[in-house]
Amino acid sequence: MTGKALLPELWTEILVPVCAVVGIAFSLFQWYIVSGVKLTADRGASSESEDGKNGNEDYLIEEEEGVNDQSVVAKCAEIQTAISEGDENSCATSFLFTEYKYVGVFMVLFAAIIFLFLGSVQGFSTKSQPCTYDKTTTCKPALATAVFSTISFVLGAVTSVLSGFLGMKIATYANARTTLEARRGVGKAFIVAFRSGAVMGFLLAANGLLVLYITINLFKIYYGDDWEGLFESITGYGLGGSSMALFGRVGGGIYTKAADVGADLVGKVERNIPEDDPRNPAVIADNVGDNVGDIAGMGSDLFGSYAESSCAALVVASISSFGINHDFTAMLFPLLISSVGILVCLITTLYATDISEIKAVKEIEPALKNQLIISTVIMTAGIAVVSWIGLPSSFTIFNFGTQKVVKNWELFLCVAVGLWAGLIIGFVTEYYTSNAYSPVQDVADSCRTGAATNVIFGLALGYKSVIIPIFAIAVSIFVSFSFAAMYGVAVAALGMLSTIATGLAIDAYGPISDNAGGIAEMAGMSHRIRERTDALDAAGNTTAAIGKGFAIGSAALVSLALFGAFVSRAGVQTVDVLTPKVVIGLLVGAMLPYWFSAMTMKSVGSAALKMVEEVRRQFNTIPGLMEGTAKPDYATCVKISTDASIKEMIPPGCLVMLTPLIVGFFFGVETLSGVLAGSLVSGVQVAISASNTGGAWDNAKKYIEAGASEHARSLGPKGSEPHKAAVIGDTIGDPLKDTSGPSLNILIKLMAVESLVFAPFFATHGGFLFRIFS
User: Fold this and answer.
1) What's the rounded Cα separation, in Å, for the pair 728 and 2?
2) How far apart are CA 116 and CA 108, in angstroms?
3) Contact predicate 481/489, CB 8 Å
């Protein structure tokens, strides 16, 4: 017999929403501080007090070099407006609205499919039915699951879109402010960029938690004691979140990389002009792309991971002793982890913004790394407390038809192993993608003999970087499954994502710094300011790679937990790899990441081809463009990126969304199990290697450009043959690290959550072809 959790139900009902509201309030407070940096000619305006903290002792560089301060500020404001608002066809906001129109149509169509497929399980009957796991009790009709799954799908989709959109607005609000603060010291610029990243991190984590909590409580009014049906219908929330993230990641990734590749190949390699030079016609599209791909896409992606890991844990818990005994506090253990995570990340963020002090460029990367370490250490203690007060001392967890007895300290270890595995993956990613370590320096050194050796070294680095993260994920799976079956795997994924607010803050910091550097170049600010923003950006590249590592690692755990829930719900007793039905699924599933990557890479390539031709045309036909006396036609380049991304995001999206439906209906749940397992095993490897290869090539280029060491100076300066080879490597890596790699983690978890949502339909009507021929 299991006991009750120490934390009363009423306290749980108060604690979760209060933590979410605190997260939202903290993000708004950070926004308010960032808004203190004025985009006006008042140079005294600043977000920090005049106490010399964080690099404030530096004089205005403009004053030293005689540049007119007022005109520089006005120019920064103008460029920021062009990136964020622009005219109706050439800015981040208009692109996202165009993308969301298409995605909105898809959302309505897919919501209808969910309703029709799930409603047809019992022939749209309104009569109660025996429960799936306990035939002696009655549950709500299948039609109710269809209705509520559709509602939760729409809620998840809207929250995901909102997460991406808010992130983009924050990033475009902060980019020019970061540039202006760079005049006062690298520490000042770091604080503005980091605070802005924190706004996005806390808004997303808190919104995701609050919407999920409210949805559960509203659904409970109808479902009453039928917790099995209630939490089965909640899985639609994760499906909605990830399906929107897929289109955001793919569409945004194609947009940003088409512009980036076009701008780099013609501007830097052919014309030998600096990155983000205002003479380059693709420069506005490139800076807009940083926001719609790296910020909006990433925000939706990590929200999807959070929603799915929560849903996977809740589904398994609902058929375990928590759900059977109606212990609401223990049932909401996944939400309690996320609630404590928000408070932990709040303390960690305050350390970066108000306690520690950045005085030199070399302190930037350690400061960001400290965020990960501090949040992980404090969160370990937080998980221990939540496991002690939020769980009974002993309880049972559903384990493929049986109930496994689990102690609360065992579940603490499951969450903790996921949390620390995330940190290990983050550090390994940093080692392989930061130019402070030998792997990237070796890649840079290989540029001596041209682009070919650079590509060979970069690919080798990416493949090698897969080894330790896979061991970390494997250990997490073994430990968590041994202790608490599939529920343990689900909460391990939640552990990895528990510090999502801090992870997103350091991730969003990168594109904001990248944009700040672009604005400094376009505004004609001094070389020293560009050096500072480049230093921020180089650290941002590494943190972005760390963020992708977290996303891929958590996606592996999430999809395995969802896979376990699907197998249980679909009534599959064992997944036997010796049966032909499963083997063909495994082979097809392992192939899918390659097919998907081929689609996204080709999309970037064909869009970049058009971009290169347009940029060349403008340089050749607009008189005075190279001399800086004529303005380029930015809008045409923006249109190329927009049209390509909207058109090209649909085929990869359809591949991922339709595969489970086609396989489940025509070939049945056993073959679909094989497809899910195959795509998980293959997708994780491809995603990690693609992300790290691209990140390493990017930072090898920045290593040569910065010339911070004797070795780097021997390869430079900008425009040298090794530098040109590094730029070619960087442009090859762009679609790998920002389009294909990050989108693959959505592929593996989205197919798993979709299979779980449609499991009742597949269990009833699946295997159509095999039934015909049997």
Assistant:
1) 62
2) 12
3) yes
pLDDT in tens, 379-410: 999 999 999 999 999 999 988 878 889 999 99
Per-residue pLDDT tens digits for 225-244: 888 899 999 999 999 999 99
- Contacts for 39 with CB less than 8 Å, ≥ 6 apart: 73, 76, 77, 80, 176, 177, 180
Tell me the CA distances in angstroms from 113 to 119, 415, 657, 748, 758, one per residue in order: 10, 35, 11, 21, 10
Residues 419-456 as b or e (16 or more Cβ within 10 Å = b): bbbbbbbbbbbbbbbbbbeebbbebbbbbeeebebbbe
pLDDT at 685 over 80: yes
Residue labelled with tokens 């899985």: 235
At residue 144, φ and ψ (nearest 5 deg) are -65, -45
Tell me, rounded to whole angstroms, the distance of Cα 110 from its chain centroid: 23
Dump pLDDT digits (tens) for 512-524: 988 888 898 888 8
CB-based contacts of 168, cutoff 8 Å, min separation 6: 92, 93, 96, 291, 292, 295, 296, 299
DSSP calls for 585-628: HHHHHHHHHHHHHHHHHHHHHHHHHHHHHHHHHHHHHSTTTTTT
Residues in the chain: 774
Query: What contacts 89, CB < 8 A, 6 or more positions away?
Result: 635, 638, 639, 642
Residue type at 89 in one-letter notation? N
For residue 398, the 8-state DSSP code is E
Question: How far is the C-alpha of 489 from the C-alpha of 434, rounded, in Å?
Answer: 30
Residue 137: is its pLDDT beyond 90? no
DSSP string, 368-384: HHHHHHHHHHHHHHHHH
CB 225, CB 524: distance < 8 Å: no
231 to 227, 238, 423: CA distances (angstroms): 6, 12, 30
Name the band, by pLDDT with cuts 50, 70 and 90, for residue 314: very high
What's the pTM?
0.89
How far apart, in whole angstroms, are the C-alpha atoms of residue 427 and residue 433?
A: 10
Please give the structure tokens belonging to residue 656.
């991922």
Question: 504 near 547, Cβ under 8 Å?
Answer: yes
The predicted model gives 211-219 an average pLDDT of 95
In the chain, the percentage of residues whose pLDDT exceeds 90 is 48
Inter-axis angle of helices 721-735 and 580-621, to 10 degrees? 130
Which residues, other chains included, contact 374 with Cβ-Cβ below 8 Å and sequence gap of 6+? 348, 351
pLDDT band for 549, please (50, 70, 90 cuts): confident
Structure-block tokens of residue 266: 């013609």
pLDDT in tens, 70-97: 777 888 888 888 887 655 455 788 888 8
Residue 690 has pLDDT above 90, yes or no: yes
Which residues, at least 6 apart from 209, have a Cβ–Cβ distance to it below 8 Å?
16, 19, 20, 23, 335, 338, 339, 342
pLDDT at 59 over 60: no
Q: At which residue do the structure tokens 């530096």 appear?
A: 58
Rounded to whole angstroms, the Cα distance separating 280 from 283 reads 6
Nearest to 555 by CA among 164, 240, 238, 235: 238
Instruction: Specify the amino acid at residue 23.
Output: G
Closest C-alpha among 761, 766, 760, 767 to residue 132? 760
Angstrom distance (rounded) from CA 125 to CA 105: 28
